[in-house]
Amino acid sequence: MLDTYFSAKLIDYKTIRVAIFSSISKDEKTPIELFNDKGLVEKLTIVNNSFLNGLVLYECKSKNKLVLGNTYYININSFGMVPLNVNDITFDKNFDNDYYYDGDDLGATYNKEYTTFKVWAPLANHVSLLIRKPGENFLSYKMTRQDKGVYEITLKGDFELYQYRYKVTNSGITNIVTDPYGKGSDANGKDSVVIDLNKTKMEMYETIPPIYKNYVDTIIYELHVRDFTIDKTTSIKNKGKFLGLIEEGIKTKNGNPVGFDYLKTLGITHVQLLPILDFKTVDELNPDSKYNWGYDPQQYFALEGSYSTDPNDAYSRIIECKKMISKLHQAGIRVNLDVVYNHVYEYETSVFERLVPNYYFRKRQNGLLCNATGCGNDLASERKMVRKLIIDSLTYLASEFKVDGFRFDLFGITDIDTTKELLLKLRAINNNIMIYGEGWDMPTDLPSDKKTTIYNSFKIPEVAFFNDFYRDTLRGSNFNNSDRGFELGNLSKKSDFVFAFLGSSTHYNNLQPRFQNANQSINYAECHDNMTLFDKIDACYGKSMTIKDKLRMINMINGTILLSIGVPFIHAGQEIGLSKNGLDNTYNLGDKYNMFRWDLLDSRVENYLYFKSMANIRKNTSNEKLYKAEDIKNSYEVLNLDNNIFSILLKQNKTSNIGEKFDYIILINVTNSNVYIDLKEYCKYEIGIAGNLNDCETYGRNITIEHYCLNTFYKKGEKDA
Q1: Which of 433, 476, 677, 714 has the highest local Cβ count within 10 Å?
Q2: pLDDT per residue over 273-324, tens digit each?
């Protein structure tokens, strides 16, 4: 019947909804029958029916609970037989508990004598393993359904480097997918690959000092593997690769350090790498043909192949990434990864939707996908097996690659219970691991109190967030290019900036704390998103400000970030004023707008030296840095030396080289005029227009603070006077 539509869905374990749209009506006496592969199971009881414009819906009940993994059909004489669609059973309130699998052996577990494959596919009635030796045809092996909807097979023999996929049938529809837990991959994630992780073992130097116990003791430097190494003006051999990031002895034309050597001199403690897990839109075999930052995830266990020297060698990306991390660790630099567990590139074609339909992605009450990410799909972290996927991926990276921290993209999409659990699991591996992210309140279908947002920061005091209040108060709004923050000359924001400078964790004027402690405040003026700091300054001042003054302002702002209470965060190139030609979202615009211009370092070496000296001041301060709210509250005094000058005294906050305690005065002139200040007593200079004065014996009382300049002084504390 060409004018007839007939379908059936399982709503809960005993309820089936049958829909008929036809010009022919069903005889009331005609039964609705449930079949399986062996024949008739039962005649269903019709408990309700409704009619609307030719569409008839029948709600039917089965006598017994239907068991997933079986093939069911619905038959109506004169209308025919259709497969029973079981995909909506994932919405049943008991589904998560009924099918949660807590094993740690999903994926391919390799042994030289055998390999075991396990995949979670609770809705499927048939799953096969397709496997081949490279260059040969796939062989098919039927997998056996085990408890909790896991399909398993063990193949005897040595299957190292064999390519494999799963063929899965859900509700009559068959798809071929890669392994969502696959750690080995060929180019562009076409096939998963069996690997022996023991062959990637190496010394990772993860315990080499220094070890940072408090977030405020760190300086995070964000970079993109390709951007940092791709500039054609350098002699880096492995441009755009993991290995390119650790090449030594590379210099600019004027002899300044490049790449790895540059990182070692900066005084930073952590590099934060933009996504290095496998992403979709860069062709790994032709990585120069299309550019992307990597926020379009495809696989959560396999690394991005375009950063390896051989994307078709499943070991290459793993070994080379480990070499990079190991080398950074040897240099005393920790490694944080930017991870994207809030969405995938395209949900319809993702392995998750094809493997377990209607499960991995969050939906609204009307059945539509949540799209708070702007990418068409929000990962449903509150589902037990999604939460497990996220945590299994993180613990794999932390244990196997000795990663030191994770920055979560759009963290507000992730539910707070998942965040609490992943924190516990990761701290069991590395007690000093850093967990932080974008805590924006995204309009996903979660209760506000269940989101990992800044507004819930007091519920998770060991998690840090990018402090947008600090950013906007310091430089101005991201959403209004001409809006100026305090350090771009908006003096009306001075009071707000005092609050931000103190870590946003203590009451100041009418401002309420955003955080329980300053470890939670990621203080920044620039990241990969939005305009660079230089472009923001340029948008506000244009030709009315000289390049020299723009670069002075860059130094003042970077120095402020490094002296503020909280966690300093710097985007690669911010220290020398890199530009994106005024653009903000350059995620796919290529090297021209995104690469680190090493030739510019030579002409702006003074900015580099300033940042280096300021970072080392913060990094090498001998006493514990402030982070507890009560300590901060009792450790500062706002000085009213001049209405236009940011003036603050941090009490007993510095230790001299002979062990004496000193109060610490910070003065920042954000205006375009020099300002004269009376300090009331002679104080010792520490930081001037060129940065750290290296314990010079210069003292001053009546001093000049130059325009767009940060100065600091030691003042002997009362207890030591």
Answers
A1: 476
A2: 999 999 999 999 999 999 999 999 999 999 999 999 999 999 999 999 999 9
| DSSP sequence for 64-99 | S---BTB-EEEEETTTEEEE-B-GGGGGSTTHHHHH
Structural contact between residues 282 and 594, judged by C-beta atoms closer than 8 angstroms: no
pLDDT at 437 over 70: yes
What span, in angstroms and rounded, lies between the C-alpha atoms of 481 and 534? 12
Angle at 208 between CA 204 and CA 210, to 5 degrees: 135
DSSP 633-701: HTSEEE--S-TTEEEEEEEEEEE-TTS-EEEEEEEEE-SSS-EEEEEEEEEEEEEETTEE--S---EEE
Q: Look at residues 188, 184, 192 and name the one whose alpha carbon lies nearest to residue 314.
A: 184
Q: What's the longest Cα–Cα distance across the chain?
A: 103
Beta-ladder partners of 35: 40, 73
Per-residue model confidence as pLDDT tens digits over 325-366: 999 999 999 999 999 999 999 999 999 999 999 999 999 988
Q: How far apart are CA 482 and CA 463, in angstroms?
A: 32
The whole model's pTM is what?
0.96
- pLDDT value at residue 1: 46
Q: Which two tokens stand for residue 44?
A: 């269903």
Helix and strand element counts for the chain (H, E):
15, 33
Return the structure tokens found at 567: 């966690």
414's tokens: 């992730």
Q: Which residues are catalytic?
A: 409, 438
Q: Give CA–CA dist 201/323, Å, rounded.
A: 10
Q: If you average pLDDT over residues 249-269, what whole number do you get?
A: 98
- Is 47 exposed, middle or buried (CB count within 10 Å of its CB: 0-12, 13-18, 19+)? exposed
| DSSP letter (8 states) at residue 449 | G
Other Cβ atoms closer than 10 A to 23: 8
- Residues 297, 299: Cα–Cα separation, whole Å: 6
Is the CB of residue 588 less than 8 Å from the CB of residue 580?
no
What residues are paired with 568 via a beta bridge? 523
Q: Read off the pLDDT of each residue in 567-579 and give the average, rounded to a whole number.
A: 98
Give the integer Cα–Cα distance in Å for 360 and 367. 14
Residue 574: CA count within 13 A, CB half-sphere: 28
How far, in Å, CA of 698 to CA of 343, rounded? 56
- CA 421, 571, 187 angle in degrees (round to 5)? 70
Q: Please report which helix (H) or strand (E) contains residue 144, including its range.
A: strand 144-145
> What letter does residue 241 receive in the DSSP assignment?
S
553 SS3 class: helix
Q: What is the mean pLDDT of residues 223-237?
A: 98
Q: What is the CA radius of gyration of the chain?
A: 30
Going from the C-alpha of 250 to that of each of 168, 234, 244, the distances in angstroms are 50, 7, 10
Give the pLDDT confidence of 596-610 residue by residue, as tens digits.
Answer: 999 999 999 999 999
CB of 303 within 8 A of CB of 317? yes
Find the helix or strand (DSSP H, E) in which 466 lies: strand 464-466
Residue 19 CA to residue 543 CA, distance in Å, equals 68
Handedness of CA 320, 321, 326, 328 (dihedral sign): positive
Q: Which backbone phi and psi does 8 adopt, to 5 degrees?
A: -145, 135
CA distance 192 to 107: 10
By the 8 A CB rule, do 337 and 402 touch? no
Q: Give Cα separations from 610 to 607, 672, 697, 698 (angstroms).
A: 5, 20, 20, 19
Which amino acid would we find at residue 135?
G
Q: What's the token pair of residue 385?
A: 């097996």
How big is the chain, counted in residues? 721
- Which among 432, 474, 472, 433 has a CA at the least distance from the CA of 454? 472
CA dihedral over 287, 289, 294, 297, signed as positive or negative: negative
